[in-house]
Write a structure and sequence with these properties.
Layout: H1 3-19, H2 24-31, H3 35-47, H4 78-85, H5 87-95, H6 100-105, H7 113-122, H8 126-136, E1 147-159, E2 166-176, E3 182-187, H9 192-206, E4 212-214, E5 222-224, E6 231-232, H10 234-243, E7 246-248, H11 259-272, E8 277-281, H12 282-294, H13 298-306, E9 310-316, H14 323-336, E10 341-346, H15 360-371, H16 384-387
Parallel strand pairs: 1-4, 4-7, 8-9, 9-10
Antiparallel strand pairs: 1-2, 2-3, 5-6
């Protein structure tokens, strides 16, 4: 019970005993409170008309007196003053779709996490980010009978009535893309036989088969999981062929057009010719750097990277960097100079790159070192992972031999 609720309950008990005719000493003895408090509550009860019966005591748990104003809420803290100076900076990032935790990690001023979130709620800034994130998600529109959208979910742990042992109860969910009609089946397993039999139950419930079955790729659907090129279970493919429906996994249309494939191919070619190659995504590089720094092992990681003749960094700009990470990335690139070749892939426009850094100074210095003696190759066209082919006629690449 919170302090506010305890105070409300004690006020109610005192007023109820005063109305019943008990004296001060009896109330103090029964409720273990002081006479001053009972006297104060009696005056308030007389003011509100509870003692003479003109006002009935409101039912529990409604408060019988208004809550006192907390003077602390009227004061402006030092943290609030600091955050007010950064308010425009915070609002700009909220409107850009940044998560509050990311903004907190990159705040130019030092303040506590709780103070930062109180500031967002007190000034209703938290609503900005929520509204922006809702508008950033484009609605997917389906025609009637076009798609059945599938997903799995763990419901809860339960006791199996047959064995008496604890088991996981799963939900297998199907939603029609147009009408949003939802079907939920409870099962003990999400293996292939259970999945296909449940799908057949859904078809019978719908009275037909949709043109497409849209799903992510859990283990029962794919022999080899992948966001872009899953290796489908042949049983699932035969099932779809039997019912005349198409299997579909949601993909991103405008990204995956061969940058990573080409970068890795160059890396393999370099390794085959005897050159040392360091290859990593920026996200994993950041994780490796933070782990190495926590273990006081960052120099060892940097020596490993700096010893490679070719660096391949994939997905630049996907991860927003904290100041700590950004400074280490700058240091790594600055130490590289021209001792190693580097391939860097990104799905973001170059004009957007400064957004991943905590401040423009580090951004300009780091990007300057990336583009010193750099050649830019722009990949256009349909997604390689989506279409199964790569169109390179729009790529203007130059190779330098040192």
């Amino acid at each position: 019970m919170t302090g506010k609720n305890r105070r409300r309950l004690m006020e109610r008990k005192i007023v109820e005993q005063l109305v019943s005719g008990k004296g001060f000493n009896a109330i103090c003895r029964d409720l273990k409170v002081g006479k001053n408090r009972v006297s104060h509550i009696k005056e308030k009860a007389r003011e509100y008309g509870y003692l003479d019966g003109t006002t009935p005591i409101p039912p529990f748990p409604e408060a019988i007196f208004p809550d006192p104003v907390d003077g602390r809420s009227l004061k402006t803290s030092e943290a609030d003053l600091q955050l007010q100076e950064q308010r425009q900076w915070i609002e700009d990032r909220l409107r850009a779709g940044w998560q509050p935790v990311t903004i907190f990690e990159e705040l130019p001023v030092g303040t506590g996490r709780s103070s930062f979130y109180r500031f967002l709620h007190r000034h209703r800034l938290i609503d900005i980010g929520e509204n922006v994130r809702r508008t950033l998600i484009q609605e997917i529109v389906y025609a009637p009978g076009e798609a059945l959208i599938l997903d799995w979910g763990k419901l809860r742990n339960v006791i199996d009535p047959d064995s008496g042992k604890k088991r996981i109860l799963w939900m297998f969910i199907g939603v029609l893309g147009y009408s949003r009609y939802m079907m939920v089946y409870l099962v003990w397993s999400y293996d292939m036989p259970t999945t296909l039999s449940t799908l057949e139950e859904m078809f019978r419930e719908l009275g037909g088969v949709p043109k497409r079955i849209v799903s992510d790729n859990p283990k029962c659907f794919a022999l080899e999981a992948s966001k872009y090129d899953p290796l489908l279970n042949p049983i699932y493919e035969r099932f779809a062929g039997h019912y005349g429906t198409t299997i579909e996994f949601p993909l991103c249309e405008d990204l995956h057009n061969g940058k990573t494939h080409l970068a890795l191919a160059i890396g393999v070619l370099a390794a085959n010719r005897g050159y040392s190659v360091y290859c990593n995504s920026i996200k994993r590089l950041v994780e490796d750097m933070l782990r190495a720094k926590a273990e006081n092992n960052l120099d060892t990681l940097f020596k490993k990277i700096l010893s490679a003749r070719l660096w391949i960094f994939d997905d630049w700009g996907v991860t927003t960097m904290s100041r700590e990470v950004a400074e280490e990335i700058f240091d790594l690139l600055d130490r590289r100079k021209h001792s190693s070749a580097m391939i860097l892939t990104s799905n973001r426009d170059i004009d957007e790159w400064p957004q991943v850094f905590p401040d423009p100074v580090i951004a300009n210095a780091t990007i300057d070192r990336i583009f010193d003696r750099a050649d830019i190759s722009i990949f256009k066209g349909t997604s390689y992972r989506l279409k199964g082919k790569i169109e390179v006629k729009n790529v203007n690449s130059k190779m330098r031999h040192k």
